[in-house]
Amino acid sequence: MCGIVGYVGRRDAVPLLVDGLKRLEYRGYDSAGIAVMEKGRLEIRKCVGRLSALEEKLARQPVAGAPGIGHTRWATHGEPSEINSHPHTDSTGRIAVVHNGIIENFESLRHDLEKKGHPFRSETDTEVVPHLIEQELKDGARDLPEAIRRALAKARGAYALGIVSLDDPDTIYAARLGSPLIVGVGDDGQFIASDVPAILNQTRKVIYLDDGELAILKAGGVRVMKLDGTEVKPDIREVKLQAEAAERAGFETFMRKEIHEQPRVLRSLLDKHTKDAAAVALQDVGFDDAQWKAVRRIMIISCGTAYYAGSYGRLIIEALTGLPVEIELGSEFRYRDAKLSPDMLVVSVSQSGETADTLASIRKARRAGCKALAICNTPGSSLARESDVVFHTEAGPEIGVASTKAYTAQLMAFALLAIHLGRLRGELTAEQERELVRDLHAVPDAIHYVLARGEEIRAIAQKHGDGPSALYLGRKFNYPTALEGALKNKEISYQHAEGYAAGEMKHGPIALINEYLPVVCLCTKTRDEVYEKMISNMKEVEARHGRIIAVASNGDESVLKLAEDIIFVPQVRDEFSPMVNVVALQLLAYFAAQARGTDIDKPRNLAKSVTVE
Ligand code: M6R
What we know:
Largest sheet: 8 strands, antiparallel
CATH class of the largest domain: Alpha Beta
Shape: globular
Radius of gyration: 26 Å
Bound molecules: 5-amino-5-deoxy-1-O-phosphono-D-mannitol
Strand order of the largest sheet: 3-2-4-1-10-9-11-15
Oligomer: single chain
Structural class: alpha/beta
Number of strands: 27
CATH topology of the largest domain: Glutamine Phosphoribosylpyrophosphate, subunit 1, domain 1
Low-confidence stretches: none
Number of helices: 20
Number of domains: 3
CATH architecture of the largest domain: 4-Layer Sandwich
CATH superfamily of the largest domain: Aminohydrolase, N-terminal nucleophile (Ntn) domain
């Protein structure tokens, strides 16, 4: 999704803008641009493609000065082109604007402005903003802040905005409604950014703007006000993340680094939330025992990979607590007439905490009186701030567009929550809790083992990754793993992949099986009949000459006869096997993508956080 960076201060803004935009590249974009105040002129440089193209342009047509605002655009209204890329200006070229989000009523606003003589150049919704501000100044606004506030009162939709103007040449204005935007408070200047990693190497002091707030940044300080003009005391917070956490640390891609970080991430969640490796003791999650016990129903809401984590959450909570659990896609739930009640806990799952559909769903559930728990990886995000309580997954910044460590951290969060709730509700004895916690502690080492098998998995991926399609099958706890494995594969290798509940194979997908189709089967050993059922499904695939890639428990001889290739993984308790098995599938997708030469960290058309519908 689009990225915003801005700087006002004594330094030259240009290198800071380019560096900040580079740190936001992972969000996905197709064009980029900057606007910089240079000796009383507002200079703009933009171009289509990667930031390297913008850097080349800046080398040919240099610019220097401050303040400046920069943007990476992910096209929504109008194709990726120089004209459509941001910053956009008013008709006089005195006001420049960068924008994330969507101005939903831009067509009617544009129509009115055109009637008043404003010439429009682009197809974007954003371009109405500088023209609206210009018009408000013409219509008697006393100053720029008032013109911006009046203009924004007319805009419907979502925005994070950075604005500079020749009328106020030492200032950046920043406003937010529904799209994330932060202010960075530095020693020698102030920053704006759509995401913390963009400015983490410059400052760790940030103000998370709230919806409906306007920040006025000057070299010496920041003022924040509401759109009605009321002053707000800025709440400056210290970000704990280290800048290096958002760097590649010697790995060829962020995704590879993030896959390898999983044992550490899960180990530290376990250390934080368990006591003596024998009991769950949730830290900083916010509910007391009485509040947990008051929960009668759970509804989990999320999108994409986080939805598959939620699907696992449903299974583990049902298994350990006896509570009824539903799972919903944010994009569907927000438009459904679902029956909601105050005894219901609505659990959102999100890496970014900014996914528009998840956020809208939580707002809807809270309006209906439900309590909201966010399982979230981004402190200070909208979801974290708007929920009653938060389970922070603390996986660190996830830069690769394809989610990996955030996913396994979400699974771990659900496992810990389920044990905690199960114990409180009397569904688990102390002894059962002790066994579960002990078995959870085996997971990080089991993941280490899978990571050490990287070269074997690479060989399998190279052999099977070049066909047009692949099928992923799993059951019960590993049904979501099959869905997630297929999603990882399509996202980064662009090989079409379907995830299916193995029991559904006979209801349709079996027609696809022939001697060319790779079928990834999750058949690690289980204590119940699911394992035997998976073996039967594999026999059905084998009988039709499908090419089975099995993820199986170490030493499982019966799989040897059925599968063409096997990824052996350590056997962990059934309930926790998805955290281990999915790592094998992440690597399988990763190496298939590498063999196909795709842009792994920034797959085509995808954005890291989907902040618009
Ligand atoms: O930030 P979120 O976890 O709310 O994002 C949800 C999805 O957009 C995200 O998981 C997406 O599916 C990823 N590309 C998966 O790799």
